[in-house]
Automatic annotation (TrEMBL):
CDD domains: PQQ_mGDH (cd10280). This is Quinoprotein glucose dehydrogenase. The keyword Membrane applies. InterPro entries: PQQ_b-propeller_rpt (IPR018391), PQQ_mDH (IPR017511), PQQ_rpt_dom (IPR002372), Quinoprotein_ADH-like_sf (IPR011047). It comes from Brevundimonas faecalis.
Length: 810
């Protein structure tokens, strides 16, 4: 047998194998497509599946008609794909790319096939060229790193927004949000759109704190004078030289690993100068932080030594009066705020554990002595300090885990409140909980009582707790306003004196039903100022890496309960929550350029695929709270085998919710378990500029490239803007730049605030899930970001604090 004949024989075997593969794919599409049609979905998959079975069978018999049939299938697929998705490159990927790979293999099979009429190659070549050009067009659209500009961005000085608080920001960055107003704005302009491409790393500091599986530092330093102050994920405090990044001192409050809640996070610290005290005295200037084990710790800003006059040895416990909560149940992850000498703090109560978990009481402590000045227990307004002997603050009440905002002039602190314990079931909640949950509460620090509150979700069973810090602005005419972003995407603008909306909020009817229909509010408040929320999902929005997993997602879409925004939770089948609990806007908040009158908001655009799980089923699955003996025994077994804490799942993925009839199972982002890809087509995150006066979108763009994302957890390294999930916020400058990391591609960027285009970026050594900060030292402007990574965002762990600056002249 000649080598040519042997080659043809081997080629025939490969073609027969290709035919079998195509037929099997067709069989899968036929079975799934039939199910999809019965659910009311697209007939495409069934039709194509049957044709592929025929095509594959003919190819297995080495019939050229099998190849021509597949070519026709592919042409029809392209036409259908363009009809469903247009030239949206990312939407075309699952519809066209895998079929295109098969097409190439089919074309290569022609030499081994039996000719039946021959010819047609020129026609096929023309068809192929048209298809390729269509695909290239789609990919070009997907690659475009340009914002959709809808309105011109106001020039600097024309925004008409006044905020005296931002005058404190410049050389310094004195608060977690830049200033007390939390605008995350710097008036510095040394780094601007013309020279930002020259930005280089000036120094790198490593904290040495790598907490393991629950990592996620989320840290933004302060800069006061010539020193930076920051905390690591496990609350180690550091003071650094602002010019060189060299350590001046460190203090370790010794937080044990079993106190780590969902994440070892410390977003920031607070700075306080004691009035009328000689600056040379110990702790005349102090740094105060909240810890994961529920303490407020105060240290001398010059030396790092604990402030002996603050509580006991420089610390006070916020857990006094809470009934000795189990380790990890009560923690402080956000920087406390100080108003009129009172340190106000909320705390995180670990989600999903128990209906009658620790209280969400808000407390205020004297910034000098640490003495409790007030306590606000919404269920017991008569308790203004510690509860009576033998009693505790009311268990299970809504907590405030994120960062509050201080208003020194009005004597208020604005508290973005969370939800009652057991996020996804409301039947046991009491009237005060229903009144204050998922609300912005303006608390008077002189009385410790609410002056007003504004609720964004009634009887919240979607975990839409307010995660974003509120931002203060003074609008034209001197109206003091507060900007409140929300997880569901709505942005509210309120008079911060009264809580009254300054832009209309409309009541709209929302879906009813679910497991507790009598509990669902018939209407919910919708902001008419602006929303980051996109249109409701449809079957066409489903995605994947191939037609097979896209079909699987379509089937799940039709099987689930979904009536749009505010679909009630169900137990007999999954329900779709869109947006998911990660936003909209989350703890990174928004930034405001007061000179241009522009709000900058990065956001997530992902659904969750959820189900309430009956208690008996949850017990069989081993879903127990942290203080359950069965959970404790499991942890001991892990420790004995050389492990540590259990690896954290996505929040809500098997949370027991003890005390209500159901546990909760959340598929965060609605991912396909086999590939790890999301069922909704990209983008999954974006960034937007909004006119502060009118609420109009100025520009909007996907945010985050595909370079660290891909199927099966394999990074694609594609520098294409896909729009990734993001966690963390931005900072804006008078130089016309937005600085932001946050996305899962491990990049920090500078974005032109006028056009939305990326004008500079750098690869971080770990995930950048933190807010950046800006300062000046010795005439040089710096940009600083914490690259600590985040387990929930699946970015690499690190302990890097990185400072960027322009090269020094000379």
């Amino acid at each position: 047998m000649s080598s040519i004949e042997r080659g043809r024989g081997f080629g025939s075997v490969l073609v027969r194998l290709l035919g079998v593969v195509i037929a099997l794919i067709g069989l899968t599409l036929t079975i799934g497509g039939g199910q999809l049609i019965m659910l009311g979905g697209s007939p495409y998959y069934l039709i194509v599946g049957l044709l592929m079975i025929l095509s594959g069978g003919l190819l297995a018999l080495l019939k050229a008609t099998g190849a021509w049939l597949y070519i026709l299938i592919f042409i029809g697929t392209v036409v259908w794909a363009l009809w469903e998705a247009g030239l949206n490159g990312w939407a075309l990927v699952p519809r066209v790319i895998a079929p295109l790979v098969l097409l190439i293999l089919v074309v290569l099979s022609f030499p081994a096939l039996k000719r039946e009429g021959g010819g047609g190659r020129l026609a096929f070549g023309g068809i192929g060229l048209i298809v390729v050009l269509a695909l290239i067009s789609g990919v070009v659209v997907a690659q475009a790193d340009k914002a959709r500009v809808q309105s011109p961005v106001p020039a600097a000085g024309q925004g008409g927004v006044v905020d005296p608080a931002v005058l404190k920001v410049g050389a310094d960055w004195p608060a977690w949000g830049g200033s007390e107003s939390a605008q995350r704005y710097s008036p510095l302009s040394q780094i601007n759109k013309d020279n930002v491409k020259g930005l280089k790393r000036a120094w790198v500091f490593r904290t040495g704190d790598l907490p393991g599986d629950r990592f996620g530092a989320e840290t933004t330093p302060l800069k006061i004078g010539d020193i930076l102050y920051l905390c690591s994920g496990r609350n180690r405090l550091f003071a650094l030289d602002a010019n060189t990044g060299k350590q001046k001192w460190t203090y370790d409050p010794k937080v044990a690993d079993d106190q780590i809640p969902y994440t070892a996070a410390c977003r920031g610290v607070t700075h306080y100068v004691v009035p009328n005290l000689d600056p040379a005295q110990p702790c005349a200037t102090r740094i105060i932080e909240g810890t994961l084990d529920g303490r407020l710790v105060a240290v001398d800003a010059r030396t790092g030594a604990p402030c002996a006059g603050f509580g006991t040895n420089g610390a006070v416990s916020i857990k006094t009066g809470m009934g000795n909560p189990y380790p990890g149940m009560v923690s402080i992850t956000s920087a406390p705020v100080i108003v009129r000498g009172v340190v106000v703090t909320g705390h995180q109560v670990l989600d999903g554990q128990k209906r009658w978990n620790a209280s969400g009481v808000i407390q205020g402590f004297d910034a000098v002595t640490g003495q409790l000045r007030f306590a606000w227990d919404m269920m017991r307004p008569d308790i203004t300090a510690l509860p009576p002997e033998g009693q505790t603050y009311t268990p299970g009440t809504p907590n405030m885990w994120t960062t509050a905002t201080a208003d020194e002039a009005l004597g208020l602190v604005y508290l973005p409140m969370g939800n009652s314990a057991a996020d996804y079931y409301s039947g046991l909640r009491r009237p005060a909980e229903n009144e204050y949950s998922t609300s912005l509460v303006a608390l008077d620090v002189t009385t410790g009582k609410p002056r007003w509150h504004f609720q964004t979700v009634r009887k919240d069973v979607w975990d839409y707790d307010l995660g974003s810090q509120a931002t203060l602005v003074d609008l034209p005419g001197g109206v003091p306003a507060v900007i409140l972003p929300s997880k569901q995407g709505d942005i509210y603008v309120l008079d911060r004196r009264t809580g009254q909306p300054l832009h209309k909020v409309e009541e709209r009817r929302v879906p009813q039903g679910g497991v507790e229909p009598s509990q669902r509010s018939p209407t919910q408040p919708f902001s008419l100022f602006h929303t980051l929320r996109k249109a409701d999902l449809t079957e066409r929005d489903m995605w994947g890496m191939s037609p097979i997993d896209q079909m699987f997602c379509r089937i799940q879409f039709h099987q689930a309960s979904y009536e749009g925004y505010f679909t009630p939770p169900t137990a007999d089948r999954h329900f779709i929550q869109y947006p998911g609990y990660n936003g909209g806007s989350d703890w990174g908040g928004v930034a405001v350029d007061p000179a241009r009158g522009v709000i900058v908001a990065n956001y997530n655009d992902m659904p969750n695929h959820n189900r309430l799980v009956p208690r008996a089923e949850a017990d069989k699955l081993g879903w127990f709270p942290r203080d359950d003996p069965r959970y404790i025994e499991r942890e001991k077994e892990l420790a004995n085998r050389g492990g540590s804490l259990s690896k954290p799942k996505a929040e809500g993925a098997g949370d027991p919710q003890i005390g209500v009839p159901y546990a909760i199972d959340v598929n965060a982002g609605w991912r396909v378990k086999f590939t790890g890809l999301l069922c909704k087509q990209p983008p999954y995150g974006g960034i937007r500029a909004i006119d502060l006066k009118t609420g109009r979108t100025l520009w909007d763009r996907p945010f985050g490239t595909a370079r660290k994302n891909g199927p099966f957890g394999i990074p694609s390294m594609l520098p294409l803007e896909i729009g990734t999930p993001n966690n963390g916020g931005s900072a804006v400058t008078a130089g016309g730049l937005i600085f932001i990391a946050a996305a899962t591609d491990d990049l920090i960027r500078a974005i032109d605030i006028e056009t939305g285009e990326t004008v500079w970026s750098d690869v971080l050594p770990a995930g950048g899930q933190a807010n950046p900060m800006i300062y000046e030292q010795n005439g040089r402007q710096y940009l600083v970001i914490m690259a600590g990574g985040h387990h929930f965002m699946e970015t690499p762990e690190g302990d890097y604090l990185i400072a960027y600056a322009l090269p020094e002249k000379g």
